[in-house]
Write the structure tokens for this entry.
Amino acid sequence: MIAPPPYAELVGTDDPLSLLASTPDRIAALVSGWDAERWSRTYAPGKWTAAQLVLHLAQDELGWSNRIRLALSVDGYVVQPYDGAAWVALESPTDPETALAAFQSLRRLNLTLYRRIPPELRGRPLPHPELGEISIDWIVQTLAGHDLHHLRHLETIAAGTP
């Protein structure tokens, strides 16, 4: 049985694909014109900086979309875990504008694919060694909620109140 995706409460009854289409531009509008000092701020002590948050969003766009592509094209595919914090550490510091542009571009490309996936494939169970069974729908909803989760962090940074 497929467990509820994380961040499901953030997505609520909204269409995950609509959220995936809109959130990158919301993030871009929020951070537009930020200087290096603002990009270096965190939303709470010991947490990622704004620049690292945007890098993380771009990296997760790569990681999760590759899982979807593999699930659709490889018989018997088993989802492989990865450590998002280790990925951020590998590529920090990265220019936040570059990471943001990558996130926006990858999302547009991925949405083209996501919208083409037939319902019978979206709900098919995929084995994950840490999470049990997930599905493409689970991934899409998780990504939509994940965007909103980190948008909140960036909004906290924008407000200047950790």
The chain has a mean pLDDT of 96.
